[in-house]
Backbone:
């Protein structure tokens, strides 16, 4: 074969190879599933401020944009039309803009016009004198088949203008890009107000709520509690209550949960002695600042998410802070204990057991499960045999009996649950990614004698430092708390309350840091002779941009005297 023939043969071979690769590549591309769709509703003249977020989200989603209109029902028709025409499943609906522009100060100016409207619906469940005749909800945008149960997660960015929208969405991007895997990712902060149902009822509600949080939030989390009740060990010096819970929340955390009464732009009142003040006022919202680890706020309270009000609601004020909560889940009108507990319980399962990876889906799955009957709710879950399912069945009877005792005889608990599916709205980016740690399978005996040691082992995902910790179980209190008796308001009593508060939130008894190599590791934990009852053993590892954690409950038993 001459040189020219060799060259032509090589060229042809290269051409055939290139063609084969292109054809193969096209075949692979054609076989790949389409990216999920996200429908974005915004005023048309705001589109330029979505450029950064659009570019960022387009890696994982196909974004379809819709111009907002003043009529929510016409806008819903446009959303439904986009859903029907989407070439892939719709992951979320993102509503950009507040319900209405702030009123103009000039006399004779045009009245306020809607930016992205919401729905006002009649309430069907009445409980107490404060019940309002209507509620507002964004859930209807996601109800595709008109059965009342939302099918697609919906989130609203309640921005007043395009620049504020850009800032809010920019915070979502920064949150997801953060490589900070510090302790804040394993913190949950709970702030509670007094129930106001009476001493015995309040005590019962506190007990069940605390037990539910104890069991529903995995042991790997450190739960910090502040309770605005003078009889609780979780009540700090009452003159410093606001400073106490804000300082903890501002350290960063995965969630900040408020349980109690609320109003449009503030939280409940707290009374001690002759002094009465708000747990958190509208002005106090400016004090929320968590530059490292801004939490997702869950406000289990009335009115705090009334984003249609003439003034900014408390949830909106939190989102307006440069380093405030990254998103808020809150009620738009009067909320009720049973409905809130059911929705909160479903969110616990979606987030911590199912390990759902976007905020919108956590809320969306919780709403579906809350809407459905218990027998149908398991269809929403991919892991219906989870430990939390057993937890819910364990406490469901107690919660329902409590709800019935506090409700009129003709009150519908099913109706209350479904009302809260609409009452509670997500203000924030529904596509916000929630990071979960690598799970460490921590092995040890479940029961150990006091005064001995317990042997444990785990498989380290990488080489580095491992921190081993032993905690009291959350349903227990340290033994060094001092009863204050009747509240008298003395300086000495306030000092003791603050000490009790700090100690009640400090359950760690022992810790050790080990240098470990990737693979199986073993260690021992000393068990003192005074220990009794339930404890939690925890191991945590952290790398430059990732973390792993595992926890195991153990029981320490008293050694019987055999003499």
Residues:
């Amino acid at each position: 074969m001459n040189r020219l023939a060799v060259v032509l043969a090589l060229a042809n071979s290269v051409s055939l190879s290139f063609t084969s690769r292109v054809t193969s590549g096209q075949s692979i591309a054609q076989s790949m599933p389409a990216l999920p769709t996200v429908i974005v509703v915004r005023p048309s003249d705001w589109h330029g401020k979505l450029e950064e977020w659009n570019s960022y989200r387009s890696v994982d989603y196909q974004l379809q944009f819709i111009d907002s209109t003043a009529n929510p029902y016409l806008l819903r028709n446009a959303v439904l039309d986009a859903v029907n025409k989407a070439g892939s499943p719709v992951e979320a609906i993102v509503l950009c803009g507040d319900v209405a522009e702030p009123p103009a100060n000039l006399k004779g100016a045009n009245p306020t016009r809607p930016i992205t409207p919401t729905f006002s619906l009649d309430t069907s469940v009445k409980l107490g004198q404060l019940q309002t005749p209507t509620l507002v909800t964004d859930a209807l945008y996601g109800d595709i088949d008109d059965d009342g149960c939302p099918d697609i997660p919906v989130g609203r960015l309640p921005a007043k203008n395009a620049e504020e929208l850009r800032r809010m969405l920019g915070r979502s991007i920064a949150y997801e890009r953060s490589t900070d895997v510090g302790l804040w990712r394993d913190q949950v902060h709970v702030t509670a107000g007094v129930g106001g149902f009476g001493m015995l009822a309040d005590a019962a509600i506190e007990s069940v709520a605390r037990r539910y949080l104890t069991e529903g939030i995995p042991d790997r989390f450190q739960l910090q509690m502040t309770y605005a009740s003078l009889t609780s060990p979780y009540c700090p010096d009452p003159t410093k209550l606001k400073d106490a819970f804000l300082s903890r929340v501002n350290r960063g955390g995965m969630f900040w949960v408020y349980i109690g009464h609320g109003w449009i732009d503030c939280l409940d009142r707290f009374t001690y002695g002759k002094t009465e003040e708000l747990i958190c006022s509208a002005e106090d919202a400016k004090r929320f600042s968590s530059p490292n680890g801004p939490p997702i706020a869950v406000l289990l309270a009335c009115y705090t998410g009334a984003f249609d009000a003439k003034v900014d609601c408390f949830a909106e004020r939190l989102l307006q802070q440069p380093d405030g909560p990254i998103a808020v889940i809150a009620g738009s009108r009067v909320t009720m204990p049973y409905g809130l507990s059911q929705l909160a319980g479903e969110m616990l399962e979606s987030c911590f057991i199912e390990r759902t990876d976007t905020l919108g889906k956590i809320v969306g799955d919780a709403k579906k499960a809350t809407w459905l009957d218990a027998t149908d709710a398991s269809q929403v879950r991919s892991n219906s045999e989870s430990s939390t399912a057993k937890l819910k069945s364990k406490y469901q009877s107690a919660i329902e009996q409590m709800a019935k005792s506090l409700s009129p005889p003709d009150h519908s608990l099913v109706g209350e649950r479904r009302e809260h599916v609409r009452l509670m709205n997500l203000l924030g980016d529904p596509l916000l990614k929630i990071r979960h740690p690598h799970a460490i399978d921590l092995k040890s005996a479940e029961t150990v004698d006091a005064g001995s040691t317990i042997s444990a082992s785990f498989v380290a995902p990488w080489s580095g430092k491992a921190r081993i910790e032993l905690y009291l179980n959350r349903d227990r209190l340290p033994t060094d708390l001092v009863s204050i008796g009747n509240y008298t308001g003395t300086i000495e009593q306030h000092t003791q309350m603050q000490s009790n508060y700090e100690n009640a939130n400090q359950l760690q008894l022992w810790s050790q840091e080990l240098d470990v190599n990737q693979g199986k590791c073993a260690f021992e934990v000393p068990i003192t002779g005074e220990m009794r009852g339930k404890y939690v053993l925890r191991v945590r590892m952290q790398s430059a941009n990732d973390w792993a954690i595992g926890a195991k409950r153990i029981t320490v038993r008293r050694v019987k005297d055999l003499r």
